[in-house]
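Re: [ENG-882] Designed sequences occasionally contain unexpected residues at chain ends

Forwarding the minimal case from QA. C-alpha cells:
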C-alpha cells in the first residue's frame, strides 16, 4: 500500500564492515540466475550477510477497482507457507538469529534478509518458499484486513500523513505509480477484497521476471548463485518493471486545506512534480541544490525558520519518488496554528531567495563534503552497501555508478546546480497543502 509500506529495515541493522576500498564494479559478481538479476559482493565483514531485493509487484499493479490488492498480497507472504505456518518460519529464523522482511511500495515488492554467512542457504530457501508458496490462510487474511483498517483509521488522524497524501494525490495524475489511493478508497477495497483475488494477483505478478537480488557480506559468489538457483528452480512468471509513467506539470499554483479539528500542529507541504528520474540529467544537481535549502540543521530552512525565528517544530526539503519513474520536489514542515501565517511567510521568503539567487559556492562545497562523507559511511555496512547497489540498479544506473557517485558529486559546478533549480522548479506553480487545525486566515491564503 502506498505510504503504508515497511521499508528495508531489517537489512539496515547489520554490523559495520571494514572500509571497502576496491571498486564495487570490479568486485561484484552479477549474473542472470534463471531470470533473477543477482548481484553478489564479498566484503571484509566477517560472518554477516545482508540480502535486499525487489520484484515488480507494487501498488501500481493493483487494478483501479481494487487498490488494496498488491498490499494485501505482499503482506500475506510472512503469514505462513504451504509447508509451514508463520510460527515455524519465525522459529527457524530466530534459532539462527536471522530475519526476512517484506514490504509493498509504489512500484515494487521489497524484500530483505540478514543472517550469518553459514545460514545464508537457509535464509535463501525460506525467502524463496515465502515468495513462491504462501499459504494464503483465510484466518490470517481476515486478521490482516482488520489490522490495515485500524492502521488507516489511525493515519487519518495524523497531520503529516494527511498532508503528504493530499500533496501526492494533487500532483500526480490517476494511474501514476506515485499517486496513492485515498484512505477512503483503501478502506472500501479492504472490505471487498477476496482471498481468491489475492491468489490470482500472486499468480500473475510473482515470478523471476524483473526480480533483482543483491547479497553483500561474508559470501562466496558461486555458492550464492548455486543456492539461489536451487531455491528458485522451476519458478516462472512475473512481469517486467514498468517505467513509462510521466507526471503532468501543474499549470498554476493551488492551495488545499485538510481541516482536522483539535490538532496542536499544522503539517504543511509545498512542492511540485519535477519530471525527473534519478538517472536523468540535472537530477543530481537538483538534489545538491535542495540539500542546501533543506537538509538537516545546516540547511537554510532549519537554520532560519526554526533556529533563528523559532517558527516551526521541524522543516526540510527533499527530492523523492524518482527511482523508477519521475519524482517530486517538496518542502515539509510543522507549525503551531498560531504561528502558521508567520511560518509560511518565512518559508516562502527562503524558497523565493533560493529560487532567485541560487546557492553560493561555499554552500555547494559544504554539501559536497557532507554527501561524500555520508556516502562513505553508508557503504561501510553490509546493509548500506546492499541498499545502495539495489537503489542504483533500480534507477537504471550501471554498477560502476556506485563507485563513480562521489566523483559525479565533486564534478558538479555552481552553474549546473543553480541552473537545475530554474529549469525544473517554479514556486508560482507549486501545490500547497495544509493539514491540521488551520486558522481561517491562513486557510484563505
Amino acid at each position: 500500500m502506498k505510504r503504508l509500506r515497511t521499508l528495508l529495515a531489517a537489512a539496515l541493522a547489520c554490523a559495520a564492515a571494514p572500509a571497502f576500498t576496491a571498486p564495487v564494479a570490479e568486485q561484484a559478481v552479477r549474473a542472470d540466475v534463471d531470470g533473477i538479476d543477482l548481484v553478489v559482493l564479498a566484503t571484509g565483514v566477517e560472518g554477516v550477510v545482508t540480502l535486499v531485493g525487489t520484484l515488480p509487484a507494487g501498488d501500481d499493479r493493483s487494478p483501479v477497482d481494487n487498490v488494496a490488492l498488491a498490499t494485501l498480497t505482499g503482506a500475506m507472504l510472512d503469514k505462513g507457507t504451504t509447508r509451514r505456518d508463520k510460527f515455524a518460519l519465525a522459529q527457524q529464523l530466530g534459532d539462527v538469529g536471522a530475519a526476512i522482511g517484506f514490504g509493498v511500495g509504489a512500484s515494487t515488492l521489497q524484500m530483505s534478509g540478514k543472517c550469518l554467512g553459514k545460514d545464508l542457504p537457509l535464509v535463501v530457501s525460506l525467502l524463496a518458499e515465502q515468495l513462491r508458496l504462501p499459504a494464503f490462510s483465510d484466518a490470517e487474511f481476515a486478521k490482516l484486513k482488520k489490522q490495515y483498517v485500524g492502521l488507516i483509521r489511525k493515519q487519518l488522524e495524523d497531520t503529516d500523513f494527511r498532508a503528504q497524501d493530499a500533496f501526492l494525490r494533487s500532483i500526480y495524475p490517476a494511474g501514476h505509480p506515485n499517486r496513492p489511493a485515498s484512505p477512503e478508497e483503501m478502506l472500501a477495497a479492504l472490505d471487498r477484497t477476496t482471498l481468491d483475488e489475492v491468489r490470482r494477483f500472486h499468480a500473475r505478478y510473482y515470478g523471476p521476471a524483473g526480480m533483482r537480488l543483491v547479497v553483500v557480506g561474508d559470501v562466496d559468489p558461486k555458492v550464492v548463485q548455486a543456492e539461489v538457483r536451487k531455491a528458485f528452480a522451476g519458478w516462472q512468471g512475473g512481469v517486467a518493471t514498468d517505467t513509462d509513467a510521466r507526471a503532468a506539470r501543474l499549470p498554476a499554483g493551488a492551495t488545499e486545506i485538510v481541516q482536522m479539528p483539535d490538532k496542536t500542529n499544522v503539517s504543511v507541504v509545498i512542492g511540485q512534480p519535477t519530471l525527473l528520474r534519478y538517472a536523468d540529467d540535472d537530477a543530481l544537481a537538483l538534489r545538491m541544490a535542495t540539500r542546501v535549502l533543506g537538509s538537516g540543521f545546516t540547511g537554510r530552512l532549519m537554520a532560519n525558520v526554526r533556529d533563528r525565528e523559532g517558527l516551526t517544530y521541524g522543516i526540510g526539503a527533499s527530492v523523492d519518488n524518482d527511482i523508477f519513474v519521475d519524482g517530486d520536489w517538496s518542502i515539509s514542515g510543522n507549525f503551531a496554528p498560531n504561528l502558521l501565517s508567520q511560518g509560511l511567510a518565512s518559508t516562502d521568503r527562503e524558497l523565493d531567495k533560493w529560487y532567485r539567487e541560487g546557492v553560493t559556492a561555499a554552500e555547494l562545497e559544504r554539501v559536497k563534503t557532507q554527501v561524500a562523507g555520508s556516502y562513505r559511511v553508508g557503504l561501510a555496512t553490509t546493509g548500506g552497501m546492499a541498499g545502495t547497489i539495489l537503489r542504483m540498479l533500480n534507477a537504471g544506473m550501471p554498477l560502476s555508478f556506485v563507485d563513480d557517485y562521489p566523483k559525479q558529486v565533486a564534478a558538479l559546478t555552481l552553474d549546473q546546480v543553480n541552473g537545475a533549480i530554474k529549469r525544473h522548479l517554479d514556486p508560482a506553480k507549486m501545490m500547497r497543502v495544509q493539514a491540521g487545525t488551520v486558522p481561517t486566515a491562513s486557510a484563505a491564503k
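QA comment: On inspection the terminal residues look reasonable. The CA atoms of residues 286 and 420 lie 5 Å apart. Proposing we downgrade this to a documentation issue.
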